[in-house]
Predict the structure.
Amino acid sequence: MRQFKNWLRQNLGFALFLGLMFVFRSACADWNYVPSSSMNPTLVQGDRVIINKLAYSLRVPFTLIELARWDLPHRGDVITFDSPAPQDEGLNLIKRVVAVGGDIIEMHNNNLIINGVSVDRSLMAESRILPSEYGPLKVQVWSERSGDHLIQTATIPSRNQFRDMSPVHVPEGSLMVMGDSRDNSNDSRFIGFIDIHRVTGQAVRVAMSHDPEQFYVPRADRWWLPLHL
């Protein structure tokens, strides 16, 4: 105990710096590593994404307790949240908001319909190779309007197993989220709606990216890449 006190006395400044850094990362801003391809092509495996934790509210550091709220997630936002699935306890996920409280959403042949209006969607690339946790993956890339954002989504012709969804009503205070790679995403279709109080921040841009399949060589074309057009 005496040795610890001596160490703390000698390194108090460093200990305070570490403490403040962890508080800042918990309550203000952080970055998340993207381990999977569920958000292809917007985010790819190996991206590190900047998260604005003050985008919607101020929370007590290291908790989901809100001190103040000034905004709600909007359609098209890429958010991080604590998964509500019991098997994912403590897991922070990153997905896109496709519907908010009060919306009625359905999907037919991968085309979203929100409140009876079909989302504008057009094919950008019949075939594109993107990195994934399974190795290089051939996908179709689509351009889609999501809220105020023009985004890109991916479908996997070799799978195409989740292309339809019956109409569902999103409860007030909840969100429906999906991965941009809709054939390869564990999202609200499987884990349910997301309570807005579980949202931990908004992803704003890719800070840096490295290719885990190529000895973590930097992907220079993805550094400081904004998520919204």
User: Anything to note?
Assistant: The mean pLDDT is 88. The helical segments are 2-10, 12-27, 188-191. The radius of gyration is 19 Å.
